Amino acid sequence: MPKSTKTYKTTSRRKSLPHDTNAEKAILGASLSSYELCTSMCESLTMDDFYDENRNHQLIFNAIYKLYRENKPIDIQTVNDELINTNNIDIAGGPEYLFELADNFVGYENARHCIGLVYDQAVLRRYLLKIEEINNRYYNTEIDSISSFISTSQKELEEISSRRTIADFKNAQTVTDALQARLAKLKDSPQANNIGVTTGYSYLNKLIHGFQPGQLIILAARPGVGKTAFGLNVCYNAAVKEYPVAYFSLEMTAEELMTRVVATDAQINQEKIKYGTGNEKERLAIKQACDRIARLPLYIDDTAGIRIIDLVAKTRKLKNEVPNLGLVVVDYIGLVRYDGKMSNNDNRQMIIQETSQELKRLALELQIAIICVAQLNRNVEQRGGNPMLSDLRESGSLEQDADVVLLMSGLNQKRTGKSNYGSKDGELTEESRLSVLQTELSKLGPNIQLVNIDVAKNRAGQIGSVYLLFKKDFGSFIEPDAAFIEQIKNYRGGNNQ
């Protein structure tokens, strides 16, 4: 982008930057009177948190802080001596000003309030100055990429605003009181056993207790297993239960996704919906499904190659418009662009790591659950075994950042190890087991695939695995009944809870 021809001139401020001189005096006086408050001030603030024009306060804080770090007594005399040693006593206001500060002692609670006030004012000053710097940068430097400029500026502002509060330690009584209040609330809730956004599948809900606010969930599989279909099913199931959900699709258009959702709802072959080849009865069922889905709190964004900054901004905007937004699905994380730059093989792992960390922060900030669809690498096929956390493609940070990891595998994927259902090892070969299982599946209808979902990581609960039946023609996942599970339990590992 050509450099702007405009000349930037900093406008004079209508008022001075945010500060509170009386609050600064109060906490400095409290520090001279109470070692406990002195500790609180020194551990919460820095010299730069005091207003620049109150240079005397900065110097007095610096003297107090030096004595504190050296574990020396802190009172009017020792602070006065330290200011004399550094030739700052006159600028600080002399011993008379120290006595004036000590006379300003406002009590413990008020002093703690003033520490927070001084800190917040300092953060606000930095925020406003950073905005001015960004504005100046725009007018006086060449902007090569608007997206990168916005991303960098936003990150700088977020780094400042993230420091806007001081959190104290919470004693055991405070925490246990809050815990008991939450448990009492859950006891009276009709969803006491599933306090998160429902997955729509009882066995999976039992393992992970739904998708919890603030969680980052990784849903990973090899191509063709049905991870996109499962992500859509989860969204549909949640929306039917009146949980607002959003779906970011980076590979398929909104209409293609809606075709799948309609097929799931109407239980009609996707091709008949896509090409309009259904009979009159099927067309009526499709229309009725469209009418039902139109009323669901389901939101779709199909921006191809969306940048993480735009994904975050759109999610925040939707959360403001739909305050009870509970779930966001990103399909898939490998296609999200970071900082507007296309990745290459050398920095791909870093891009995935930055993206997953950004999404985890977003989940915590908005108190929503975020599901990231991801791919497993080819090792799982070459190894011929069960998917493992180490099979997550391109980045180990996905495993680290995620609260829950779901690994999907299909019937045709060879599995190893003993069956959790107590199979009789040695009686049947792998090929024989698959043949028996195929026969059982064929009794349920055409083109049905057994899918195993391993809860490979779960910070908040159990790990284990569940079976789902994938009806590929309809793009829908359903739970097998207990009788079917009993029939297959000797032929394949897994553990429907």
Explain what this protein looks like in three dimensions:
This protein is α/β, with parallel strands linked by helices. Helices cover 49% and strands 11% of the residues. It contains 20 helices and nine strands. It has helices at 21-33, 35-44, 55-69, 76-85, 89-92, 94-102, 108-140, 146-161, 172-187, 202-208, 227-240, 254-266, 270-275, 280-294, 308-321, 348-366, 379-383, 397-401, 430-442, 482-488, and strands at residues 216-221, 245-249, 298-301, 327-331, 369-375, 404-410, 448-458, 464-471, 476-478. It has a nine-stranded mixed beta sheet with strand order 3-2-4-5-1-6-7-8-9. Helix 7 (108-140) packs antiparallel against helix 8. The protein is elongated and about 95 Å long.
In short:
It is built from 20 helices and nine strands. By secondary structure, the chain is an alpha/beta fold.
